[in-house]
Fold:
Amino acid sequence: MAQHRPFPLLSRILHWTMAAMVLAMLFIGIGMVSSVSQYHRLVAIHKPLGILVLILVAIRLLNRLLNPPPPLPSGMPGWQRVAAHGSHVVLYALMFAVPLVGWAMLSAARYPIVLYGPLQLPPIAPQSPVLFAVLRETHTVLALLLFVTFLAHLGAALMHALIFRDDVFPSMTSFRFACDNKPGRTESEPRGGAKASAAATVAARE
Structure:
């Protein structure tokens, strides 16, 4: 069996930082749609947070190329390997696309993208009400897809942690859930150990 090798520390920091930021950005986006009184306050948070996610996902992709992730468990079925790699490609693509489309959407409406104080981003799309409407709808659809992909990623991680109990979850957390059956131990061994202990007790009494 191959020795367990965790992700590099920087990869784990980027992973969990971005997980919290993406989740916060998605819920802020939902709050923007459902709240009128807090809309402007949420938008002021949503814009710079989206740009920060865009910057961090670029750093994370570069880090992934320079520091490749540990190999998947050797016993993992082929379809799970394909699903794991495919979900990561989709996740990275959406983390790039959602903030970029949001930036272009605001540019098409000529809304200022204020990061902090006087610091603003330049427009990346021509001013057009029609383009704004298309990009707004696209931004919403992509954000929902990102949320679904995020939940699927979380569900797969919990499945590896609680059901498969392999090295996938510990490689990103350095934490392993307690397992009832240790590797290499069969169900008959505990029973055999109990019988041996009982026999030793009887012998001692004799």
Notes: Residues 129-164 form the longest helix (36 residues).
